[in-house]
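User: Predict the structure for this protein chain, please.
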Amino acid sequence: MTDDLDFPPWDPVGAETPAVNSQAFANCEIAVDALATRTAGRVIDRCYTESPKWGRILRARIATTHAGKPSGIDMITWTGPAAGPDVRFATRLDAPPW
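Assistant: Here is the predicted structure, written as structure tokens:
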């Protein structure tokens, strides 16, 4: 199922391992924090993993509002297997309850 995606799956899969050093995700953190700021939201969950295919993966959930109603944004950021300074990301809208 994940082979046809251009981004990591929304939930961690078997080939991923929990990251032991979240400081290695600094560039991913910058992207997540920028989206949270831009949407006047706050990050309520973060999950750090590493994958041979996707590199470092940070999955985050941002709580915000839309049209006066609670809303959420799921965001995946990843470095790619080379783990350079570039960060890629994907987002999807989500509605509570979480």
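The CA atoms of residues 1 and 9 lie 9 Å apart.
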